[in-house]
């Protein structure tokens, strides 16, 4: 928590002014009952109207000064708190950008969203209270106590007897509530997870009329969240009636013993009224302290969750002395480097079976390899190791003979044009989507990339051509159109390494062949790894690799494998047979 509070440092002026102005308000508040007592005792009781007027004016002045303090404190504390949370969110976002997939899977994207949203808001609220109530309430308690003692030490004993045990009770309530609030935030994560999955898969939900089931799933998570929140709030809000009851008892006692003293003449009526006022101030301050402590227990939970994000070390980071100049030379000649998998074993975090099992494969400089294999064979896993989305558990990957771990990942990724199996586009224009990796590219370059990806023609048919604005995730395009935009995006920087993960699965055979031809023409010397399903890719590649259960089953040319590998023949026979079925 303290670590996070250092985010207030740049706003130290506001963070200092706020409590100072609060001190002004509190001192003015503390004056009021005293002034009132003097109006009652000297003005009303002795008929001194001038005194009533003077003291009344003084009270008004105090009230005004108090107002200035109160408003000032609100202004500065909200300024500091909002700036605090804004900076915190900024740094959290920056931290998540450095995360590797392993980090993201560990925390969970839904939870990250709660942490940047709800948890930071919790902390903001706490900072606000810290700058206001944290000063106000204890000052009021101590000040009122001092004033009460000044009026009548004997009566103040009653308050002294009540306040400390109340603090004890408050402390216990807070201790109980901290773990409950931790649960509340976890349940909120769960609610967000359902919501996120639902929105991301809304087409599936609608297509399979899953709305009702989704609603039930959401209701369950939501009810769970509400239940946890209610349990936590029950405990916390218990402090208000408890405090009220205890202090009402104290006031009755004060009235009783105070009344006796007034009768005996050792206390004036005005003083008794002032004393009761101070007692009430203590009551309301204790309630605010209760709220502050409650806020603190929630903020502590939030701080832990936020700090966990900061504590998460990106798994894949640049080495202290990244090596790259030699490779740079490779890239500058426009020729892709050799990529070598040396006995690579890789397991997804938490997976039982390795996705790649002691796999050895060399893709020569500038060569194109087509990977075939059934679903789950490890094709995407193999591709994902090249830009270091994950690191191999055993063995090594080498680029032009250099271990990937000796390279700066950002530089490495800059050398790679990657088309993912699942196309992701962003809201924005077609042009901006294609230019994602090289925002400065000119219109001619964008068009060349689009032409190679066979996207140019359909883009021109869009309402505003290249300036057509896509909806969220490119929802208004067909799957094949989105794939072609993703390919154009990967081609635009003319990367020396190209990776296509089933990038043409949603286009027809003829278009697939044209795309492969376009890529070859645009980047004749790139080293290219592609996952494919149809013969066109095998024919366009220099050689073919068949994967099964994370191992290489067969390797060779299309023609060679057709004659030597039964598994490979099976892949293509299946397709030919299917096409026959559909044609007949
Ligand atoms: N994020 C993941 N976490 C755990 N296991 C995964 C993950 N992605 C894929 N796998 C598993 O790893 C294996 C290889 O997957 P993948 O490389 O995606 O196969 P392919 O692309 O050939 O269909 C499969 O058994 C799959 O279930
Ligand atoms: Mg895959």
UniProtKB/TrEMBL annotation:
Q: Organism, per UniProt? A: Azoarcus indigens
Q: Choose any GO biological process term that the UniProt entry carries and state it.
A: lipid transport
Mind telling me what this protein is named?
A: ATP-binding cassette subfamily B protein
**InterPro entries noted in UniProt:** AAA+_ATPase, ABC1_TM_dom, ABC1_TM_sf, ABC_transporter-like_ATP-bd, ABC_transporter-like_CS, P-loop_NTPase, Type_1_exporter
Q: Where is the ABC transmembrane type-1 domain?
A: 16-298
Primary location group = membrane
Q: Any idea which UniProt keywords this protein has? A: ATP-binding, Cell membrane, Lipid transport, Membrane, Nucleotide-binding, Transmembrane, Transmembrane helix, Transport
Membrane-crossing residue ranges in chain numbering: 58-76, 133-151, 157-178, 240-260, 272-293
Q: Does the keyword Signal apply?
A: no
Membrane topology reported for the UniProt record? Multi-pass membrane protein
